[in-house]
Amino acid sequence: MNKSIGIFAHVDAGKTTFSEQVLFHSKSIRTRGRVDHKGTFLDSHKIEKERGITVFSDIGVFDYKDSKYFLIDTPGHIDFSPEMERAISVLDYAIVIVSAVEGVQGHTETVWKLLRKHHIPTFIFINKIDRVGARVLEVIQELRRSLSKDITLFQSSNLNELRDEEAEFIAERDEELMELYFEEGYDSKTWKETLRTLIREEKIFICNKGSALEDEGVVEFMETFHELTRTDYDSADKLTARVFKVKYDDKGNRVTFLKLLSGSLKVKDEIYYDVGEEKVQEKVNEIRRYNGTKYKVCDEALAGEIIGVVGLTGLKAGMGIGVKGGIYDMIPTLRAKVMFEEGLNPREVLKCFKILESEEASLNVTWSEEFQEIYISIMGKIQIEVLKEILLDRFNIKVEFGIPEILYKETMKGQVEGFGHFEPLRHYAEVHLKLEEGPRGSGITFENKCHNDFLTPGNQNLIRTHVFEREHKGILTGSTITDLKITLITGRAHNKHTEGGDFREATKRAIRQGFEKAEKVLLEPFYKFRMDVDLSLLGRVMSDIQKMSGTFEEPETFGNRVVIHGKGPVAEFMNYPLEFQAFTKGKGTLSMVFSGYEECHNVAEVIEKIGYKKDADPEYTSSSIFCAKGVGFSVPWDEAEGYMHCLK
Question: pTM of whole model > 0.90?
């Protein structure tokens, strides 16, 4: 039986130490490494050893009784949470590590919400019960208050002999079991099978306690976990898989890590997947079974396994084979400029960043042709420091980064029509689009209403491709436009003069021209937050939220604690955690999760600060190019409609 499990925790809760113990007791490794000794099996990268944190999601494989486990040790720092969330999408079960001293922390809540979103059955291990200040019972109450009331501390060493309170807790969540309990009492076989089902349906979350460092409670946890988890994969079915991550090995080979959801995969097999509207076919050159940094080459992989494949060049992390790609919450809200020595070729530096982007798509590397500059999207300052080390270590390139700035976006209200015409000498293309505001968070959507009498299906598909092939700039700040429905109404081509790239220019100009006429809206990223503080600090917290242009719901009081839910702009809240920890003296809990884009709270200030000059952007223009008497001439956006051929 193949089982994929992920280990999650807030930084320093003991996640990697716990993973080391599991691998040791399952005889996957001979000696247990320690984070403070820089000798852990899964934190194998030099950066991870030096910093003592998990940056990359690595795989450990072990056998336990009748099952093969694929263990993923995920990053615990918020700056590397996109990779953590992609790991979630390939899991059968999750294990969340919580410190018995610090209790529920900000990232703990973030992880929990993501696990619930992706419907991953979850177990909890309360760690560090040997530490001074450990408070297991208080932490259990925190877990139930912050995460779920369906969490229960499981203390029976034998699943066949449950304690009365454990049996009652299970029975309360299943009506048939409750009736059986009153009529016949406890039956171990029925209870165990029902408990497995309730765990799989996320109606119960089993919690154990121990100390990973002192090897206390780990074996008991493994036994309970093994008995209460089941998977059912079918290797005879059609191949479906999800991409977990992409990386390049020491020899420069691109390795695509797949979780096989069904079917099997052999070397030299042809696989098919979709990239937008395009159908891609590639051949598997090599299959690797990884365990840490080492791997074994094999001829075939079966459903339920996580493998590395060489030979696939188009698949990105999060994409699927035979299944839809994932939709993820953890996306960057900051942008930083890359700065490097004058002697370096900018395009060579860009090439290195594009390699990193293929491994971590959320970097969203962009190139400014006008200024010969590189920009990347980031989660936070720790990620910047790690990127510096990676570039120096892998590519021998020393870089610095500008001060991170908020990633704004632009959209519009209502609907308009946009026209773009591109007709310099011996070129010809015209595009007529309708632009409509879309639901918040919908991105760019496309509909085709063009008749084949006006454009061939090939040219219609070409226009669609040009809509999605790049991000399009807005007018207010030059930020990416989003939440827009674009409909192709009609267009024109010339049998002789229309060439490759003509429709790209016409499409770009049509979007821009329509946006010029629209009621434009500037968007900024927002956090959804949860604060848990002492009741005496309620006034201070509410005042802070209002000062930072945030909003909040009615506070909830639990004894001498109060919980506040709300949301606020990333620009105002991004540096608040340090201040929060200071005035709560480390006893408050703050979790902040990106919740999407909303209308900007200080539009005029942002527009003035960015200072975007829409008419001076060489890559984007709202005007159209027409031709008369063999000479091309430019027509400004507000006059272009009078020249359009499709309107005559």
Answer: no
